Amino acid sequence: MISGFPTIAAAVVILLCITDQCTAQTTNCSALASNGDCSFYDCLSTKFQCTANDYPLAYGRKHCLRYASESSCFSTGGQAWITNVSRCLMQSIVNSALYNDVNTTCDQLETFAFESHPRCYIDNGFCTDILLSDQCQNLVCIGNEIFTDRDFYTKQAIDQITRTAASCSSRISTFLLDARECSLSSPDHAL
Ligand SMILES: *[C@@H]1O[C@H](CO)[C@@H](O)[C@H](O)[C@H]1NC(C)=O
Ligand SMILES: *[C@@H]1O[C@H](CO)[C@@H](O)[C@H](O)[C@H]1NC(C)=O
Ligand SMILES: *[C@@H]1O[C@H](CO)[C@@H](O)[C@H](O)[C@H]1NC(C)=O
């Protein structure tokens, strides 16, 4: 029955749309985010119907898994940083307005996620545990073990880490200045 085909096709499309909306509204990734579980990104990708080339799988999951598998390259402080940053990045997404909006696009998720990187890095001790590790151990791990590809995301991520590191210098100077002011105000060390 030729004439029935468009009707069936339309019904299938409508059914798929309804199912997709359902997926978007009901998929709950928050427990995975609380645990810093890398499969959070699979959940996020499903929730927003992203492709394998979008942020959740192409960047988020990929680097989450890579940090986890290369964790032993890092110092103890670096390993704590990895755990805490992974959770911070996921929870930033879950706590954002985008997460609760069914119309959020995968590109919007990408922009938001990249913007949340520097704060999560810094709040969890990037300027000390990562930047100041002995013999640059942790920076070497990031360069040699994590961002080994030469793709667009990697270039963006390395640029961002460099800029984040640059923003540390003022914090480190502030820290040294505070330390100096402490010793200046102490009678024993008066100049
Ligand atoms: C998602 O799950 C968390 C606990 O895992 C729960 O607290 C929260 O209310 C759930 N959110 C929705 C929208 O169901
Ligand atoms: C999502 O988009 C649809 C269609 O454009 C619209 O009717 C709906 O209000 C939007 N929902 C939200 C939460 O913005
Ligand atoms: C990592 O998170 C744990 C638990 O929230 C906290 O106790 C610890 O101080 C954090 N570590 C760093 C380096 O921020």
From TrEMBL:
Keywords: Signal
Position of the signal peptide: 1-24
Name of the protein described by the UniProt record: Uncharacterized protein
Domain of life, per lineage: Eukaryota
Organism: Amphimedon queenslandica (Sponge)
